[in-house]
């Protein structure tokens, strides 16, 4: 039943009530109230006030706290909402016809039904506003973490070649005779490293060109630079097939280095990192496998989110950048394939192969 139907039903109830009051008041029955209450209808919810022609209250029903002031307040409210129902009353003593006015209001149930849609709309608006604010501040917090992490990642990336260059500079100052060829070669490597870092940060904010082909070579070059800087007790195994796939050399090298360093951190001082590169019918697959501390299953998806880290001094950006480079720029997928503590953890990259004719 709709609100309109309920309202019409209540109005008809009051109209019937009025007709019976008029009938009983003009009949020979001495107790009109008794007749109306017990025989007419059962009205336990609709507020009613009956006045005489001079506006004096002579009867009321379903009024909470029926004090004199409250009755007149209720009467004022009823006058504003509905036109009263006029009933003719025969004054037998004067033998003339007078009248009474029946004022009424909505029942509490009807009032609740009327305001319910507005309440629901307001509640829905508040929920949507809350979701928006949570999303806005969550995204703002995420952006803040990204900028902070990116700044720290920049410092971290620049730190290795700069430290090396500073070291060579001090070495040159302390030695009278040096092997200029060897030192020059090492300095060239560090300077080239700085150029690579510059290219990476300039590429990350724009659409990169995917013009490089030899992923195997890119992996070897990336690992060779880092392998000399890890513990000799960490073994690195490369099981790489020759695969041709369009990719961005600078950004993909960043992916390889981040995943390799992530495996090294998980291993500690002793262990093995294996990198596999191969292709199946539909995809190019790269697996990073280590025997380190592993990843909790509940954290499989979290490790790629900004700010999430299990390291005491980490800032949770490396794998976020890796995920963006793979998913956004290379239209691939990266995920934790499996993880068994101190046995084997595999992080897999899948790059979808496209038909050249399409």
Topology readout:
Blueprint: H1 3-25, H2 32-40, E1 48-52, E2 57-61, H3 68-81, E3 85-91, E4 96-104, H4 108-174, H5 180-204, E5 212-214, H6 215-227, E6 234-240, E7 244-247, H7 249-267, E8 271-279, E9 283-290, H8 318-329, E10 333-340, E11 344-352
Parallel strand pairs: 6-8
Antiparallel strand pairs: 1-2, 1-4, 3-4, 5-7, 8-9, 9-11, 10-11
Write a brief structural summary:
The chain is of the alpha+beta class. The protein is built from 8 helices and 11 strands. Helix 4 runs antiparallel to helix 5.
Q: Would you mind describing this structure in some detail?
A:
By secondary structure, this protein is an alpha+beta fold. It has 8 helices and 11 strands. Strands 6-8-9-11-10 form a 5-stranded mixed beta sheet. Strands 2-1-4-3 form a 4-stranded antiparallel beta sheet, with helices on both faces. It has a two-stranded antiparallel sheet with strand order 5-7. A hairpin with a 3-residue loop joins strand 10 and strand 11 (344-352). Helix 1 runs antiparallel to helix 2, helix 6 packs across helix 7 (249-267) and helix 7 (249-267) packs antiparallel against helix 8 (318-329). The chain is rod-shaped and about 140 Å long.
Oligomer classification: single chain
Given helix and strand content, the structural type is alpha+beta
Shape: rod-shaped
Question: Radius of gyration, Cα only, in angstroms?
Answer: 42 Å
Point out poorly predicted stretches.
none
CATH topology of the largest domain: Heat Shock Protein 90
